[in-house]
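stage 2 :: seqdesign
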């Protein structure tokens, strides 16, 4: 197990902004006027061009960054091999069983061994009355760059669990997907049963997902069926789902707990840059843009601070709380959503989207990604460092309130550039 995890983390470290840059290449996106400044700076051609070249809000399936594990990775199998191991909609099945080590009492296990496994046709039957959709940014716990943003569709996991008719001793659900029939490659995540049965704080439900942006979930994205946990990092949203195990275990037993990861940390709010010129003319305005991941604590501001090399830094201020931060503009919802949506309309109903207008009910949307931009006034000749940060809805400035590594990226990004 150790060697496969080491390889997985090595792949994690290789992921940069390839997805962000690839998605923006050649794509012009129009954004609704937000009017933060209240003057003609918002009409600056430099700023308008920078905003127009941002990547789309939603990501096409094949443009998501991939950090899958497995040797070989399951999505690389041939079509014939996928059929043989249940990785097609026609052959997929799911075991929903009691944990043999910490058993719960079930009246009706769903298992291939007993001939009662849950199949894709069963899932679609439940979908007729229980399907849900929600927007979510998919992010790895140990990467500072989102893997992609999408509208995920599925059936709440609880609807399938109830089919087993649980009676007693059910405290936790753990689940895993297909990994080459090799126990050493099995990757497991888990949730308390309370989170599966009930949706706290107006969160969408944990789902067995089968569509992304209105299209069947591709094999690379974890199809035919994967778990998606709305408020969690990607390791909780297991791909190629094959087993759900109902257990009386009292603690998390996630594979990702190895290597000192915090497996119960929900999405954090943080900002990063997308475009910062490496060199600009002295005393000439220029634009910077970026994105913010809107975590569980929401987002109220994105701010930037430009520091000239040689100038004194705030002392005894590890997170630069006393620095002269300036507000940037959080861009409003785009006119074009991207992601390949039919007729450029988010399908209805979708969690948090007005069914009549197709517009977000609140903005910025929690658990999603938004963009920001700022026009910087001309600067004198020199070398500079630009930093960006978020302020959440509770007034916590990044990296607070959870600045610790291994619980999700939150460090303040810095980008160096030259003026002259």
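stage 2 :: out
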């Amino acid at each position: 197990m150790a060697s496969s995890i080491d390889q997985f983390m090595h792949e994690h470290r290789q992921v940069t902004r390839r997805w962000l840059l690839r998605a923006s290449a050649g794509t012009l996106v129009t954004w609704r006027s937000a009017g933060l400044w209240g003057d003609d700076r918002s009409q600056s051609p430099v700023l308008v061009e920078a905003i127009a070249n941002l990547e789309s809000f939603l990501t096409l399936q094949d443009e998501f960054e991939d950090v899958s594990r497995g040797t070989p990775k399951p999505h690389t199998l041939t079509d014939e091999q996928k059929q043989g191991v249940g990785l097609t909609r026609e052959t997929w099945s799911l075991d929903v069983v009691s944990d043999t080590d910490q058993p719960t009492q079930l009246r009706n296990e769903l298992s291939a061994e007993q001939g009662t496994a849950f199949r894709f046709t069963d899932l679609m039957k439940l979908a007729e009355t229980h399907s849900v959709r929600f927007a979510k940014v998919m992010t790895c716990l140990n990467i500072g760059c989102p893997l992609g943003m999408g509208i995920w569709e599925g059936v709440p996991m609880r609807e399938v669990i109830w089919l087993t008719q649980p009676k007693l001793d059910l405290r936790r659900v753990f689940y895993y997907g297909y990994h080459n029939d090799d126990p050493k490659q099995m990757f497991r995540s888990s949730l308390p049963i309370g989170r599966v049965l009930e949706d706290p704080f107006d969160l969408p439900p944990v789902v067995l997902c089968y569509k992304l942006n209105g299209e069947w979930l591709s094999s690379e994205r974890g199809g035919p069926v994967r778990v998606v946990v709305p408020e969690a990092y990607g390791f909780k949203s297991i791909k190629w789902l094959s087993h759900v195990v109902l257990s009386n275990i009292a603690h998390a037993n996630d594979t990702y707990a190895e290597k000192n990861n915090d497996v119960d940390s929900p999405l954090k709010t943080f900002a990063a840059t997308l475009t910062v010129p490496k060199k600009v003319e002295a005393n000439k305005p220029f634009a910077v843009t970026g994105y913010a991941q809107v975590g569980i604590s929401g987002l109220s501001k994105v701010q930037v601070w430009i520091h000239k090399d040689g100038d004194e830094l705030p002392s005894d201020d590890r997170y630069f709380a006393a620095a002269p931060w300036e507000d940037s503009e959080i861009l409003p919802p785009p006119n074009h959503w991207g992601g390949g949506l039919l007729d450029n309309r988010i399908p209805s109903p979708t969690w948090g989207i007005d069914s009549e207008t197709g517009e977000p009910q609140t903005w910025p949307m929690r658990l999603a990604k938004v963009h920001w931009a700022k026009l910087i006034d001309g600067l004198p000749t020199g070398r500079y460092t630009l930093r960006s940060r978020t302020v959440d809805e509770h007034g916590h400035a990044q990296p607070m309130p959870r600045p610790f590594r291994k619980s999700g990226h939150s460090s303040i990004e810095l980008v160096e550039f030259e003026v002259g």
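stage 3 :: structure notes
- Residues 64-259 form a domain with the Sulfite Oxidase; Chain A, domain 2 fold (CATH 3.90.420.10).
- The first helix runs from residue 2 to 14.
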